[in-house]
Protein: FOLR3 protein
Organism: Oceanites oceanicus
Amino acid sequence: AWPAAAAAQDSLLNICMDAKHHKTEPGPEGQLYGQCAPWKENACCTANTSLEAHLDQSYLYNFNWDHCGVMPEKCKRHFIQDTCLYECSPNLGPWIDQTDTSWRKERILHVPLCREDCEQWWEDCQDAATCKVNWHKGWNWTTGTNRCPQGTMCQKFKFVFPTPAALCEQVWSHSYRYTPLRRGSGRCIQMWFDPAQGNPNIAVARYYA
């Protein structure tokens, strides 16, 4: 049974999910833009996807960060980083889950995020504003981009998401799980890492696989 178990484990490592913009297999990209650059040695995203991830009104999902006024840059960079991780990382295999929506067959569920990544995200976004807890659904799309649904009001993140865990877990319907684990523990996924030190998420995926 052991080789079969090893093969099952390997199938969760170094793969791209079946979703809207992902490549079928991970591989090197000459140039990835901006915050997606750490993944360029081995990426599930194309250079064009990495560029679009940084635009305020990107064709990736027509999603508007500024739905409750302009999102501050220090907050927006976390959402860009989150997009880069989602689109580019080949290390999310253990958390890929089947889904059946018009735009993707697979999603990520309960990815264990390192505590610092989650807390910094919350810290930098607490004074930004939003009108919704779950950004995956329930928007008004009549204009072709997401607008706050009728009857909702814009409030600061710190009231919508009272804790870092609330933000990380709820904003993308439990794609992430808040953990008390720290960066460098080898047990949690880092949204932010220095590619010069290598990609720490490879070992994390192997551990959970």
